[in-house]
Specification:
61% of the residues lie in helices and 3% in strands. The protein is mainly α and 355 residues long. The chain has a three-stranded antiparallel sheet with strand order 1-2-3. α3 packs across α6 and α10 crosses α16. The structure holds acetyl coenzyme *A and oxaloacetate ion. Acetyl coenzyme *A (ACO) binds next to loops. This is Citrate synthase.
Length: 355
């Protein structure tokens, strides 16, 4: 059942994937969480080894993909390229016309495995460098950073990236997952459903907020500027990116974990600057909106993840695509659930009044 994929208590700030709390999930490898979401239960050692081997073996992309990346416009957000290329690679998938559960699983593995390679290759080519071949011996997070930079990340950076993918992987019927499900509900193929998800994730009210957070932290530049920046925005009735949530009326549990990770990275790098800037933003928003106005506007999943990207030298143009690397497992879990239902999603227009 779709409600079994994810559980959110927006008042208590509890999040579970398949009945397992996010605080436990974040200690697992991304491959295990991806398996859990898609297969419905945690893998045993043998299942995990097999699933990981399949994923790691499917990371490479073909020559044509690199040729298309070279034709992209590098002055816009990377999600423009990612959306196009995911659509492009569907033509080369030998299972594109096989909608059996087995065919869909093979497509799922290729999508989860190749999206990080596409994002990293885009980044390297955009910066005048050659793409780096994936390293099958590395975890999802470590391999992504390796393909991005051309050298192995520190253990902490690899762990933070892995946890970012896990924390971003699933969130019930958020806008992009809903979009993917609607596409799957017509029995359209998995690539089309993932492209729908990517198009919807891009918006700044949803996954696009993470890129805006990175830009905002850069613009604020130092903790001394942060309070006035927030007060100025609020006085103009503008939103502070990375805050607020339709479901959480308390602190987002992923926000708490991301905040700890941001602090760990800041300490390890001996540079508290971005973390302290973010903390003043948070304290000001909470004082002005929660304490003075009683509005439940706390940091969401996009706030401290954006701060982490500052510490990992990840530019805003990559932030939404990196979110998608994690979220694709959630989209696929929902699509598989939807395929089983074999029922088209077709709400009536009056239902939009309640959204
Ligand atoms: C992965 C994700 O999608 S997580 C969300 C990522 N998006 C963002 O961070 C963008 C900023 N946040 C927002 O725009 C919103 O909080 C959303 C889209 C996440 C949720 O939207 P909704 O549930 O529709 O809340 P809505 O936008 O109506 O806001 C309710 C009130 O809180 C205020 N508010 C909500 N978010 C913020 C914010 N980030 N900054 C300032 N005020 C805010 C609104 O101005 C509104 O005030 P009002 O009642 O006085 O008019
Ligand atoms: O659930 C939502 O509405 C937004 C979302 O995707 C998330 O918080 O991860």
């Amino acid at each position: 059942m779709s409600k079994n994929i994810c559980f959110i208590d927006g008042l208590e700030g509890i999040l579970k994937y398949r009945e397992i709390d996010i605080n436990q999930l974040v200690e697992l490898p991304y491959d295990a969480v991806s398996y859990l979401l898609i297969q419905g239960e945690l893998p045993g050692d043998k299942e995990l080894a097999e699933y990981a081997a399949c994923l790691h073996g499917e990371r490479e992309v073909n020559r044509e993909v690199i040729d298309v990346i070279r034709m992209c416009n590098f002055n816009v957000d990377s999600i423009e390229a990612l959306r196009t290329i995911v659509s492009f690679i569907s033509q080369f998938d030998p299972d594109i016309n096989d909608s059996s559960p087995e065919g869909n699983m093979r497509k799922a593995i290729r999508l989860i495995a190749k999206i990080p390679t596409i994002v990293a290759a885009y980044f390297r080519i955009a910066n005048g460098k050659q793409p780096v071949l994936p390293d099958p011996s590395l975890s999802h997070g470590a391999n992504f950073l390796y393909m991005l930079r051309g050298n192995k990340p520190t253990q902490l950076e690899a762990e933070v990236m892995e946890k970012d993918f896990i924390l971003s992987a699933e969130h019930e019927l958020n806008a992009s997952t809903f979009s993917s499900r609607v596409t799957a509900s017509t029995l359209s193929d998995l690539y089309s459903a993932v492209v729908s998800g990517l198009c919807t994730l891009k918006g700044p009210l949803h996954g696009g907020a993470r890129a805006e957070v990175v830009t905002m932290i850069e613009e604020i530049a130092c903790p001394e500027n942060a309070e006035n920046y927030v007060l100025d925005k609020l006085s103009k009735k503008e939103k502070i990116m990375g805050f607020g949530h339709r479901v959480y009326k308390t602190y987002d549990p992923r926000g708490t974990i991301f905040k700890q990770l941001a602090k760990q990275l800041a300490e390890a790098k001996g540079d508290m600057h971005w973390y302290n800037t973010a903390e003043v933003v948070e304290n000001t928003v909470i004082r002005e909106l929660v304490e003075k106005k009683g509005k439940p506007i706390y940091p969401n999943v996009d706030f401290y993840s954006g701060v982490i990207y500052k510490y990992m030298d990840i530019p805003p143009q990559l932030a939404t695509s990196i979110f998608a690397i994690g979220r694709v497992s959630g989209w696929i879990a929902h699509c598989f659930d939807q395929y089983e239902k074999k029922k088209i999603i077709r709400p009536r227009a009056f239902m939009l009044d309640e959204c």
